[in-house]
Specification:
Elements (H helix, E strand, L loop, with lengths): L7 E4 L5 H12 L3 E6 L2 H9 L7 E4 L5 H15 L4 E4 L17 H6 L2 H29 L3 E6 L11 H21 L4 E6 L7 H4 L2 H9 L9 H12 L10 E2 L9
Length: about 260
């Protein structure tokens, strides 16, 4: 018996890194999975890594409201009611967001309007569109559900670029609102705020990884499997009394 048997999970940004680990873990635990990504080829690569029933692969821009609604509708029709949404789609840099060599207020001063808006659109607006599309259908069907938002340690107090930190913090406000209002309907919402996680992107920054590792009480940086294990718990019935919470797998780098 899998921990997610009988559930359908839509994972946005499943084309690589944490998103790919989520899709593989959810399928391993018995969920029917929708692998979404802006890059269809990346989403298909994730689907090929999944053992068991073939997942639904879907490519669209999460900032396109109609496209997101069409994706959720197709998932509901082909795989059954979407019980779980993991809002994971995101980027760490956007065009015109200032020089990565700048630090502190220099990044803020050098950021363009375009860079700021793009970051918030992808993370926050994209998360809102996906949540709205899923929640609408859950309410219509009088079904419970679980929404998991992928935030970041920078959204709860870690250092980060201004637009990325703002976007990840905004997701927490969206999550709390859904949790508060969704509870009476059996709809839960929680967030994961990972610290430094080993992905192809962070593996290209060995100095940064080593800096974090030295300051982490558990003596290592995280893995995508660390994040996926937490997401499985939040998606499933084991966490049935958990809602409105932000959990940060960061090895003790930041404590609260």
């Amino acid at each position: 018996m899998g921990r997610l048997d009988g559930k359908t999970a839509l994972i946005t940004g499943a084309g690589g890194g944490i998103g790919r680990a989520l899709a593989v873990a959810f399928a391993r635990e018995g969920a029917a999975v929708v692998c979404h990504d802006l890059d269809e080829a990346a989403a298909r690569t994730t689907a090929e890594a999944i053992a068991g029933p073939e997942p639904l692969v879907w490519a669209c821009d999460v900032t396109d409201s109609a496209a997101v609604d069409a994706m959720v509708g197709a998932a509901w029709e082909r795989l059954g009611p979407v019980d779980v949404l993991v809002s994971n789609a995101g980027v760490e840099r956007t065009p015109g967001d200032g020089s990565p060599d700048l630090s502190g207020l220099g990044q803020l001063a050098g950021m363009s309007d375009e860079g700021w808006r793009a970051m918030l659109d992808i993370h926050v607006t994209g998360g809102f569109f996906a949540s709205r599309a899923v929640v609408r259908r859950l309410l219509e069907a009088s079904r419970p559900g679980s929404l998991v938002f992928m935030s970041s340690i920078v959204g709860i107090g870690g250092a980060g670029t201004p637009h990325y930190a703002a976007a990840k913090a905004a997701l927490l406000g969206l999550m709390r609102s859904i949790a508060r209002n969704g509870g009476p309907h059996g709809i839960r919402a929680n967030a994961i705020a990972p610290g430094m996680i080993s992905t192809p992107m962070t593996d290209a920054l060995p100095d940064a990884q080593e800096w974090v590792r030295r300051r982490t009480p558990l003596g290592r940086i995280g893995t995508t499997e660390d994040v996926a294990a937490l997401a499985v718990y939040l998606a499933g019935d084991e966490s049935g009394f958990v809602t409105g919470q932000t959990i940060s797998p960061n090895g003790g780098f930041l404590t609260s």
